[in-house]
Fold these 3 entries.
Entry 1:
Amino acid sequence: MDFDSIDTTVPALGKSKIQSPIRADSEDTRRLFFVSDQDRVIIDINQANLEDRIRRGQKIPSFEAAGPRAKIYFDPSKLRCALVTCGGLCPGLNDIIRSIVLELYHAYGVHQIYGARYGLQGFIPAYGHDFMNLTPQSVTDIHYMGGTVLGSSRGPQPIEEVVDCLERMNIRLLFMIGGDGTLRASSLIVNEITARNLKISVVSIPKTIDNDIYLVARSFGFETAVSVATQAIVAAHNEAKGYPNGIGLIKLMGRYSGFIAASAAIAQQDVNFVLIPEADFDLHGNGGLLDAVEKRLQERKHAVIVVAEGAGQKFFKDKAEARDESGNMRLMDIGRYLKKEILAYFKSKNMDTTVKYIDPSYMIRSLPANSSDNVYCSFLGRDAVHAGMAGKTGLLVGHWNNQFVHVPMSASVGKHKQVSPDGTLWLNVLAATGQGRLKNCVMGLAS
Amino acid sequence: MDFDSIDTTVPALGKSKIQSPIRADSEDTRRLFFVSDQDRVIIDINQANLEDRIRRGQKIPSFEAAGPRAKIYFDPSKLRCALVTCGGLCPGLNDIIRSIVLELYHAYGVHQIYGARYGLQGFIPAYGHDFMNLTPQSVTDIHYMGGTVLGSSRGPQPIEEVVDCLERMNIRLLFMIGGDGTLRASSLIVNEITARNLKISVVSIPKTIDNDIYLVARSFGFETAVSVATQAIVAAHNEAKGYPNGIGLIKLMGRYSGFIAASAAIAQQDVNFVLIPEADFDLHGNGGLLDAVEKRLQERKHAVIVVAEGAGQKFFKDKAEARDESGNMRLMDIGRYLKKEILAYFKSKNMDTTVKYIDPSYMIRSLPANSSDNVYCSFLGRDAVHAGMAGKTGLLVGHWNNQFVHVPMSASVGKHKQVSPDGTLWLNVLAATGQGRLKNCVMGLAS
Amino acid sequence: MDFDSIDTTVPALGKSKIQSPIRADSEDTRRLFFVSDQDRVIIDINQANLEDRIRRGQKIPSFEAAGPRAKIYFDPSKLRCALVTCGGLCPGLNDIIRSIVLELYHAYGVHQIYGARYGLQGFIPAYGHDFMNLTPQSVTDIHYMGGTVLGSSRGPQPIEEVVDCLERMNIRLLFMIGGDGTLRASSLIVNEITARNLKISVVSIPKTIDNDIYLVARSFGFETAVSVATQAIVAAHNEAKGYPNGIGLIKLMGRYSGFIAASAAIAQQDVNFVLIPEADFDLHGNGGLLDAVEKRLQERKHAVIVVAEGAGQKFFKDKAEARDESGNMRLMDIGRYLKKEILAYFKSKNMDTTVKYIDPSYMIRSLPANSSDNVYCSFLGRDAVHAGMAGKTGLLVGHWNNQFVHVPMSASVGKHKQVSPDGTLWLNVLAATGQGRLKNCVMGLAS
Amino acid sequence: MDFDSIDTTVPALGKSKIQSPIRADSEDTRRLFFVSDQDRVIIDINQANLEDRIRRGQKIPSFEAAGPRAKIYFDPSKLRCALVTCGGLCPGLNDIIRSIVLELYHAYGVHQIYGARYGLQGFIPAYGHDFMNLTPQSVTDIHYMGGTVLGSSRGPQPIEEVVDCLERMNIRLLFMIGGDGTLRASSLIVNEITARNLKISVVSIPKTIDNDIYLVARSFGFETAVSVATQAIVAAHNEAKGYPNGIGLIKLMGRYSGFIAASAAIAQQDVNFVLIPEADFDLHGNGGLLDAVEKRLQERKHAVIVVAEGAGQKFFKDKAEARDESGNMRLMDIGRYLKKEILAYFKSKNMDTTVKYIDPSYMIRSLPANSSDNVYCSFLGRDAVHAGMAGKTGLLVGHWNNQFVHVPMSASVGKHKQVSPDGTLWLNVLAATGQGRLKNCVMGLAS
């Protein structure tokens, strides 16, 4: 990654002058507890690179550390906040909502907290969705349930109407929890707010079960997703072993990146082939997938294949490109395509095989978070509140080098983190599967 | 059920003359412990019916009780046994295999136990599958894994070749674990054995995740299946609530009967419509499913539908009837059909809906059994061994009125147990869902 | 069991004259759906026993079938009901509460439903606990949580004050969910009601995680308990194998009967010794437990022991007998006693061992029910409502020969179901553990 | 932490001259894939601190990055390796064993791999334990089981005899997986090896379920432990709510640090008091724990307390200090002590309370790792192999700033990572529990 080009400056609405209501026991504690804007986290922690920079007199790129500030921008007693969740479900949404509400209410004393229903639709009067009042009471048990109590929706809404609604309701702090499209919408909302010269802060918490947010090492719900994905692998493995030449085929989430597929295949080492968007592969020909599966069946009588939903999209190149309501490129169904191709291939070879196809997507997305994600979401939500109360805007709360940080939206929007074909994750996958490099699998060229 | 027409006589190869090697502590214990063929379990336990029979001088239908016999037919030191698992995976297969092997080996001292690989294919030389030697050591941990260590396959094989193989290998006791098709095959094998005047016993353990075996109250794996099906319901419910007019649609197992669908909907009471083969329903028109779903959405903004795979097959009547390799009628995919119809219906009404479709079938079938099924399978396997060692044949080990019993294959083969439309199970479903009777839903007429 | 002495007549407050508001579709359905008091379930289903009775002209003992009656006793629009949960926690309490409330409300239209807080304390003004209003809304999600939303308590309360409270509040139908002590209290309350000539119905749902209710084949929460108990066995097994001469010792619930210990040991076959109240055993001497464990360690280097809490109480005979607040005999802690004795024994033999002791009791009791118990509780609750609405009283809702039945309190109170030492459950345990009969283990003599 | 005093130089047996057998596709890939000793990870990533160092001309502390080296020290075809697991069980032990064996065998071609049985006892002839041959076949399924297939033991063994055994068996590479005591033993073994001028490499993988290894951000098994600890909290919460003035008390692991207690209380936010070794507290007096619990009961009628096993040891100061066989200070049982004190306190106040005490320790330690720890262990094991094959010794494989690194044993041995009283973890706990600072709770003074 080219760290030099990253703009790491987080916008702010103005100077923070109000004493934070968060109590610190003593001056000593205070100093340790509160985070200042001068607390910054180095992005590139390779020592050689760093010394190189020092030698060349280059600046050292770093992110602002997340955490509570001693002075805040908004007056808690007057502040009205809103939360919105957008896009597909992801384990942890309710944890984030709960964490934000509890921190606003108990730590800062903000009592006017509104939940927009069904994503950005909630701001558009035409849909007629009422806002929810969010209180500690109303969120106390929501993290036991998957999904989002606010509801969600896909697709863009007129940015002006969203900002109109914020103005009309006098919302001064907006928390947006969503993926790619939501990040784009957040940026546009910030622009519109700036254009209108309003003092409204927008803080994003990036949501993608795929774990592909650029400049964010871990996204919430990912650990939970991997955990359940391993159950699908166990199932596929049992089905594959259960029949002569049995093939278990699992499609996992991963539009642009194969993090779930790769991690699940390491966590449950019963997989023989992992196909991800970052690694091109051929189906046919010597060294292609079908050839490799055939060899595997001859040796071991069964095979398990994991394919990320964004893999192998080149096979659909002739088809018109389409985009869904959120503006994501509409992916062709590589899972069912592979099933069809595998069946046709072995039929043509007069080889009896059984293909069991598993698509656990909705059973993963709708789960409550596991305890690791519970803890992670608790931190994310609180840090989003700290950032917002300090009047910061146009940022997302990220995680880098094991620290929570502020990442300007502009630095992350429109880009994707990907599995590096020469990194330890993928090399660990190659070791765990023994799949080798499939023909035409020139890794590192995926975009 | 017409209990009078049931033939409850279990065939036997001959007189049991050998003392059972199972130790009993004393004569007293002995009397309590061993089961005699005179121990029979009354089938119809309604007192009024019974007294009616007594009045009319009719016989009282009963099943032979399962359990260890004091005298056995086969000499354990010489006996060679085989096990085979056929058809689709079902939680508990490995438990049954393990239980049979341990009981044969430890309780009776039978040490020559062979596992046929990949279902009936294992008996056909052309496939070239070797038999597995089964020992306590080789089966000790298999119940932690789903699937079957023997492998399975669908489809019939030439009965003569199967019996040839039994003769050639000198197998005198065969345990067949499988569903409908396997029961049919078992009967044919018994006939062929009889025709050849051989002394080979065939004992079936009926396997159907659908819980639809005629004259068997509970089939192994069913409790496990319901348990996981509830997770799919939770997922569908979260997805449905997550979007405006969200619809969660789950297809569950159940070719001829809706036991899984009905039980899961009671266990996880988030379902609004349960569609099963036993209850006809219309899609269109006033009171049809689509109309009912629309009303539900208007009232509550989301809906959850569970459909058993065998429901609504009338919608495909024009299509040619096909049968799969096991001879089961090939079912059309009611799940995807409903999804398509629902989407089309609401599109025609200009009503924005989201349909999330979940088919957890393979994630359920391939699981290890839960503890309730572990216990149940442990009993089933032992009782199958007791029956076989006593020289009984042409029977399946069943469960009736909370007792393990011997059911002659002839009494059960080719029939299905179904959800009674006026029984407490379905009425409990109606109460839990509030779905009412859908239009044209004349229950009790399903065959 | 001596079935002849069982009084199976269920008391009733009076004649049921009101048409049930439960809709039946047609006369045909009606006939099938409603249960009449003439529908009775035969208790002893052994055919030989039955024919013997017929020959001798004896009556055939049977229980009244549970289920909805066509005519009911109480007018739903005026009826006030109360629910109370007593004694220790058990998986499924909230399912039962929910099922009763939903059935009362939706099926019968009873809208005045009160929950007594903290067991019988809730009826005693001195404690100052307010009643809870129970509505479909307030119980909708409670089954996701373990424990009881009503709270519970142990110990008797003055019966007169309880009945005073029922009179004062005009409660006419009381559902009592509890164990031994509660059943005793229920009987006394019924007597007091009768003495005062009141028309108040009391319906019990027997709760005992131990599964030892006399004349009830299965009690709710038991399947869940066994399921979690197996996890403790897995843990103990891993700890035992982890160290030289490692011993895993697990204490499981079971005051008077070893059903949980026995079933868990069959479900998770890693146990070498199962100790239950029904089977006497010696610690010391040739063939005693310590001797047997030593032999096991010499052969296999590790051992797993499961002890039911009521086992081995003879070792404490010198100590004064005490009873807890619920009137149960206070059991001495056999788990810690065994740990101490085992350590002392091997120390005296200079044999290094490691003993890991696990007592999972509270982690089991406080769980939500699993799906099998969810379904079971749903039925239990509904059938309790049907019984109560029909004006029946002094009964508990039981399960016998796979049917829900009405058991008069008088027939069950003060007795315990036990594991039969010559029955298939215990014989299956002996096979699964290979433990043999320990010295002085004269089974069948336990009371 | 004083990073300057950390010696970060990793010892090595000699120069690595052998080409690694790990294939790289091309020169390009090669450059990216292999890690050089010049790849170092900065320890302190605070930018201000860093710039301060640069200004002062101080060196920048860093750890050597873990990973495969292009040149290795040992000749795989001749190398004999050994693995040993010591101390208490921890989820992931079998994953680590499996990962090491598979990487040695498949990636490097090392085929002579021996497992020492029962910890360091395995090296001492007097115990008579045979070594296990470890092959890909023998480890293929071990990660499904908790515990360690090698067995373990506590306590020191004569270092000379251990090294004698290594010499005798010609073991040149030893992997030691264990905690505190094992790290001390590792250091002594390295010293003895050096003193004897042997070329034997010792690589440690630090194991502590407590997550308190100095200079290691995350230890394997910790995520799994937190996950199960939350179940104990749910149980305690249900028990507490179930009775008037109910108190749930859970003792969790944590000898010197409260990471599990703190994380579990955040993951499952039903806890009202978290007591950890790092935070002193009084029991009695105004503002003491008992006073605070009483206030909580008065307000909410129930309370949940989590105590780490190392908390409150000051209450036992009079008692002689003892150490266990591994040399750890023997902790007094704070859980049972608190239970006793709480009961006595409320008895003295004539306040009826119920205390339910849960100690889930062995049910946590003996579990298989969850998927997050599966992945983590897979990396740890491989990186240990890479380090060992490169002839590095006297190091442990750690994780810092989200990177796997080599930490010299000397830098970590004898120290403990602790929960910072002013860090975000503890502050998040304070927010989640609302417990405030208990009297005399001067955090940050714990040693």
Note: Residues 223-366+421-433 of chain C form a domain with the Rossmann fold fold (CATH 3.40.50.460).
Entry 2:
Amino acid sequence: MASTPSAVPDPSPELLSRAAAVRRAAMALGQCSDGQRQQALLAMAQSLERSAEAIVAANTADLEAAASDQLAPALVARLKLDGAKLAGAIEGVRQLAELPDPVGRRQLHTELDAGLVLERVTVPLGVVGVIFEARPDALIQIASLAIRSGNGALLKGGREASRSCAAIFEALQEGLAESEVDRQALALLTTRQESLGMLRLDGLVDLIIPRGSNELVRFIQDNTRIPVLGHADGVCHLFVDRSVNQEQALRIAIDSKTQYPAACNAIETLLVHQEVASQFLPAVISAFQAEAVELRGCPRACALGVARAASDDDWGREFSDRILAVKVVESLEEALEHIARHGSRHTDAICTTDPETAGRFLSAVDSAGVYLNCSTRFADGFRYGFGAEVGISTQTLPPRGPVGLEGLVTYRYRLRGEGHIAADYASGLRRFSHRSLPL
Amino acid sequence: MASTPSAVPDPSPELLSRAAAVRRAAMALGQCSDGQRQQALLAMAQSLERSAEAIVAANTADLEAAASDQLAPALVARLKLDGAKLAGAIEGVRQLAELPDPVGRRQLHTELDAGLVLERVTVPLGVVGVIFEARPDALIQIASLAIRSGNGALLKGGREASRSCAAIFEALQEGLAESEVDRQALALLTTRQESLGMLRLDGLVDLIIPRGSNELVRFIQDNTRIPVLGHADGVCHLFVDRSVNQEQALRIAIDSKTQYPAACNAIETLLVHQEVASQFLPAVISAFQAEAVELRGCPRACALGVARAASDDDWGREFSDRILAVKVVESLEEALEHIARHGSRHTDAICTTDPETAGRFLSAVDSAGVYLNCSTRFADGFRYGFGAEVGISTQTLPPRGPVGLEGLVTYRYRLRGEGHIAADYASGLRRFSHRSLPL
């Protein structure tokens, strides 16, 4: 709704025709068997292995260009794809082939009347559009997720990874050429014009998955009618209640912040009940100092020793860094209000030994993940046991939270009859049985 | 994305504060038990019964105003709410109270490690915004669907039904006042400015459900970032294959078109395989003539007796009337292409006795409903056995097709630990078990 026509151009005729080709190939892919899709993944993995040298060489060229362009070190780290990292990504493709087929699962099976049987079966979405920044291994992961779930994909990598992406894409296509999946099911976009044009491919692209900065995600959400799977913000909270095992709470706070500070599921704000603040905060201060985490406190937290005062902007801010806002709250209710106001509905946790307080927190906090006495860092598709992660969604509607392969399928109702017509039920001649059948 | 700022104004401060009040009440409602929500529905039903006379009188006043405004007869028919229709709507509220609770269902239950247990539980969406035209009984239905599923609702009825809606809304609130559900969980909007402003209540409204004309739905889809449950078009097809029980196919064609021609699940186009066309079409022509349905044919259909030629616009057009486009196709593949090109992915059916053709159609047509040898008119939440229908969605992502109460809930992940931290798994000190537990 916030689009400006100049920001999002109409897709070019060339992009439209490429997207239409992907869609046609995806329709055929959607009819492939589980075994055919598994075999395609194994062929992709083999082809990547054969091309490993060329891929690493292309990546070296990208890294050299990045060095001469003076790219930020964090970006360079994400860009780097050496032999070991590539081998890991290829292993990921093989693991994906082994995951249970997400397609063709019967979710509902009802006899509406004798001879009139309804079923709801999972089917691929169609075509996914993926826009990612820097990390070239994301191309391998996303392409294999798409093929495993029977979807075509339009893939747009970052400009800085263009050589790596081209080499990987060539290997993926060569792999597909040795399988029964049409290689046209995957297309690599290379220009910014193309990735912008993709946002307007309603009807040809069914889901857009942005993998990159919050700004990228927000821009995409604001400039497309196509559903977007992702999250702009990960503003996670940890509330330490008055009834608490303080030693355990401190371990959880440190893990939630420092195990990977740039992750979306790291905490940005620590809320501490006033009744334990004077005892708990000194321990927090020294433990986080040892971890080189800067604390920014509310006035009461500062009075208890937090060195730097938090600004108004620090509440609800995703630092993505070794910075943690700390607030002393009067009650559980104040903590709930703070989270409702400043959180991003990603993952929020409580440390408490009081079952009633735990229950209230778990039912009142409206986030994709609500945790009791454990680290927010568990919010992840692999840790949840999904085997693969498409992304993490902070929207209200499903799919929500960490999304596995199920995020790349939808369902369809199939109704099989023997000449059944609705008029017979309207007239009362026949009646619905609505009998559940085994799945 | 197609919005013009003038079409969708910012919500007024008054609307914002009303929506915030609904959201607060909805948060409390979301914590209510199944029994409390059931009881609230029964209290609403009783209150509506007590106010029946006032509601019918208000409706009579709306009908008189409609007559003096010379409203279209179809609109007047939808506007009318006499004692019998009201009693039916009240009975619907009581039935809804009896439906199984959609909230608090455990969908996933996994032990990630000893003492670290993940579950996924259904929870209310929060607040739904509903915009409907004319039919005042829709207000009763939607309000009770919302309360049953633990959601607050902003409700905007048509201007022509304003007196009826006000009377119904008063009765609903009086009913809620006798229950443990805060009456503020429901709010009635009355002006066009308010319903436009609602489209911008991102963060306060979680789902918009438009109930009205295709134009209304399309306008809303194009002018909000909030997810929309609904469908702009219902362009359904019936394909009569060459291997077919022609008598049965004719019965199905007639039912699919005439059982309720204005419904979204009525067919708009009949596709006939060329090998049966010369035999089947004459029967179609006389049968539809008897039903006062106008046929518009492709050249080959016209050559076989269809009196009027279809224009290019007639393919893919939702007539919502006693008009049916008829096309002779060379093959199953041509039928599939026609449906892919002109359909709206609502419901499409095939009549065939060939299992292979049936299988190909059921897997290749990418619509919310794909039917074999039965009428498209079965595409309906009640007929599917869902007990209640929130709407029918033609989007690709779930919820798709007829949507019952499950369309008004989402889910949340709850993770309960005993001090578990992610670092222990990263270091290899602990390993995930990912053991499925009983639901």
Note: Chain B touches chain A through 74 residues (CB under 8 Å).
Entry 3:
Amino acid sequence: MDIKTVNLQEKFATFTDQWHPRIIGELNGQHVKIAKVQGEFIMHQHEHADELFFVVEGKLFIRLEDQTLEINQGEMVVIPKGTNHQPYAPEEVKLLMFEPESTVNTGNQEGERTVRDLEKI
Amino acid sequence: MDIKTVNLQEKFATFTDQWHPRIIGELNGQHVKIAKVQGEFIMHQHEHADELFFVVEGKLFIRLEDQTLEINQGEMVVIPKGTNHQPYAPEEVKLLMFEPESTVNTGNQEGERTVRDLEKI
């Protein structure tokens, strides 16, 4: 069995592209993913998946229908399934996400921002 | 709907006891928990649950049957179900865990270290 310690900053150092999640862990049918994000994402929702965002570095905003969340380094938020949300980040943010294996980044808004077949790094 | 940003250090500041996990998030049938740990825990396993340990502060060791893992701040490890593991920490560690809602801290070794009915903080 291959049980290895995963260093987040080492994993972040392996890529530079933004809005492209990578898988760094799997457990109980869930994926742990990391991504670098900057600028505006699209408003979308996940019909069947709650989604956790944890900010490793930077400041992330998530626009909801009735408020905007500000998530700073060392903070996290859970977006319940069926909730429209639009992440954006004026400066680059290093993000850790936790969600079911089947979750696609753009949820119900398939399009040019959609990334499938994520690498495991 | 109540969607709130969770600050990990603020949550850690609300308690001082060790080896007593608190729930700080719930999603997709999984719990996000935090705990302060120091000293030796017991060797145990979880028959049906993979378990993620993420070190927020400090240095955690996890003794397995054939190796000992060292997990530093900003590092994580997934312990697969059915794997005997014994966490220990010479100095206090602030720990984030991710596991199914049904997971009990001592797994198959019910005893005085077992904590049930975890608070949500």
Note: Chain A has one domain: 8-100.
